[in-house]
Amino acid sequence: MASLLDTISSPKDLKGLSLAQLEDLAGEVREYIIENVSRCGGHLASSLGTVELTLAMHYVFNAPQDKILWDVGHQAYAHKIITGRKATFPTLRQTGGMSAFINPRESPYDAFVSGHSGNAIPAASGICETMARAGCKKHVIAVIGDGSLSNGLTFEGLNFAGMKKQRLIVVLNDNKMFISHRVGAIADYLSRIMTSRKVREVKEGIKGLLQGLPLVGNRIYRAAKYIEGNIKGVVAEGLLFEELGFRYVGPIDGHKLDHLIQAFQNVSAMDEPIILHVVTRKGYGFVPAMRDPEHFHGIGKFDPDSGEVKTDAGTVTYSDVFGKALTKIARRDPRVVAVSAAMITGTGLTAFAHKYPDRTFDVGIAEGHAVTMAAGMALYGLKPVVAIYSTFLQRSYDEIIHDVALQNAPVIFAVDRAGLVGADGPTHHGVFDLAYFRSVPSFTIMVPRDQLMLEKMLVQAFRVQGPVAIRYPRDRIVASPARAGSIRDGGAEVLRGGDRLVVFCAGPLCYEALQAAEGVDGVAVVDLVYAKPIDRKTVRDLVDTCQGRFLVVEDGCIQGGVGSAVVETLRDLKWPLKFELLGIPDAFVEHGSLGELRKSLGLDPGGIRRAIDRLL
Questions:
Q1: Count of Cβ atoms closer than 10 Å to residue 27 Cβ
Q2: Residues 598, 603, 605, 611: is their CA dihedral positive or negative?
Q3: Which of 22, 463, 582, 606 suits 290 as a labelling partner, its CA being 20 to 30 A distant?
Q4: Domain of residue 416, CATH code
Q5: Is the pLDDT of residue 326 over 80?
Q6: Residues 464, 574: one domain?
Q7: pLDDT of residue 234
């Protein structure tokens, strides 16, 4: 039997399909996602939940002329597949292959980059304004997840779009029953028929009739609106969006194609801001993912029949070590609390949260709030540890400066996923944290080379009278770590002596540097331990001994990073400097395996060895 999916090369090919064919196509798309993600890993559960939603949108609207923006890029696998990328989908997240998220450079159907939640509505608002000025009547649709409603940027966008009465359709994909539990056939039916043109015309006619009554017309109309609003609050809980200037429609069953198509057709005729509330289920159509959607949110290779994940048994990551160490510290000090932003599991805090639920604060996708709340905690007696991925912590840079550093609040930042993260690509590489923390007064920055140093640094961080950042990678721990040295304030540690060239390292790349230096006489390898403050005396003395020759190796951006700190320290050294800085260049690094990315940037033992040879 011929595959329907093989006949789809663009959304235009959906237009002639019957409802039954669309439903068959949804099943094929779902199977294709499972088949391929099982081989390469990816964000499975979210994309399985949006298959029908995606088909219905592309069936009704005309992308790329109509602009579809995805707030949560990892929900868009079906979108990628039906917009001409089916053949390349098997290369998902692989070096040189398909991006993990929405990428406008990849396809004209990707209207705006999507890697961090919260940007879709503001971006869509800007597109609406541009279209309105040009007299363009095309549609702009922003698809947001329910988790985005904890993000302030989302509400800033809603506030503006509602105020301006922009012609914007916001599809709220609610896969956790985030807003309303009242989902059923009656609510679904009422939502669909209440969006029809005839009902709207009748409603507007009644409005005009009531307001036209002499003396009491406006009062009666306001009373009717009050009653209508309260009924909506009982049935659909959409008053918040109505107050923001949006017409609320929903909830709609997000797995019923006929209901979705009718609702999209109806709202497409409205010339006002719309919230279409669609209820879906993460992992829909794949029992293991429906049973454990959190586990299958971002998943590695797995068996597509059983759902069994193919992982190395007993793999321990830096996140695991951090969570265990913090739980141990918290046992001795009841003032220790953990703060995270919708990533308790990912940051290794699951055991901590289980043991100390009243000392665990998950604020949702609201990194700025997490940082400022932690500052308030720290200044008034608690000892907060803020555990957030490096790439997401960027979103709270102002709060880090204004609310933490300016007041010297003793907040500890556990900066997870620092450095290159591999397959998730440029929106998720944590390569800027060293540079942005280094630029802020008051901060102490520690970079552990292995799990033993991470444990010692966490203990030391609680002794520092001010804010501290400890940054560590998304990686398994070092198999044979060196003996942990003393974490004296600002002190570097010499791992290998030498008088011809000194290699300064920050983090686990110390081990690559040691491997690169094997068999080469006179090459010293130094773990800086602290990115701030730099151990000026050790740096200057060693470079002086090596007559100005040095190499810096880091997994952060070169501009403003640790290498910059070393060069700043040596600006008045008596020797002419001969050096190289290895790290992330002034460019965004694409996705790929960690090993392949490091090799391409010269951050593997081979690349470091070549740099050593060039300097000697």
A1: 13
A2: positive
A3: 22
A4: 3.40.50.970
A5: yes
A6: no
A7: 40
User: Do 500 and 387 lie in a common domain?
Assistant: no
Which positions are catalytic? 282, 367, 395
Pair of tokens at residue 360:
């665990």
Tell me, yes or no, whether 231 lies in a domain: no
- Rounded mean pLDDT of the chain? 86
- The Cα 209–Cα 484 span in angstroms is 81
Tokens linked to 105:
């450079």
Q: For the chain, what is the largest distance between any 2 Cα atoms, rounded to a whole number of angstroms?
A: 99
Which of 219-228, 236-245, 301-310, 545-554 has maximum average pLDDT?
545-554
Q: Which residue has the higher pLDDT, 20 or 211?
A: 20
- In tens, the pLDDT along 81-112 reads 999 998 888 888 888 888 888 888 889 999 99
User: Rounded CA gap, 253 and 187, in Å?
Assistant: 10
506 and 397 within one domain: no
What letter does residue 107 receive in the DSSP assignment? -
Instruction: Give the C-alpha distances (Å, rounded to integers) separating 220 from 194, 203, 313, 378, 538.
Output: 22, 14, 69, 53, 81
For residues 304-328, average pLDDT: 83
Q: Would 477 be classed as within a structural domain?
A: no
Higher confidence at residue 306 or residue 442?
Answer: 442
Other Cβ atoms closer than 10 A to 401: 17
Give the pLDDT score at 218: 57
How many domains does the chain fold into? 3
> How many Å apart are CA 322 and CA 350, to the nearest integer?
11
Residues in the chain, overall count: 616
Only one residue has tokens 């190499």, namely 551
Which strands make up the sheet holding 168-174, listed edge to edge? 67-70, 140-145, 168-174, 274-279, 247-253
411 DSSP assignment: P
Identify the domain containing residue 273 by its residue range: 5-193+237-291
> Within this chain, do residues 512 and 402 fall inside the same structural domain, yes or no?
no
- pLDDT score at 489: 75
Q: Residue 23 has which token pair?
A: 């439903």
Does residue 208 sit within a domain?
no
Q: Are residues 273 and 407 in the same domain?
A: no
Are 359 and 375 in contact by the 8 Å Cβ rule? The answer is no
Residue 519 sits in a domain whose CATH number is 3.40.50.920
Nearest to 570 by CA among 495, 510, 616, 504: 504
Residue identified by tokens 């398909």 is 98
Which range among 179-183, 377-381, 552-556 shows the weakest confidence by mean pLDDT?
Answer: 179-183
Mean pLDDT of 450-461: 95
Asked if the structure places residue 346 within a domain, the reply is yes
Same domain (yes/no): 464, 525: no
Same structural domain, 415 and 500: no
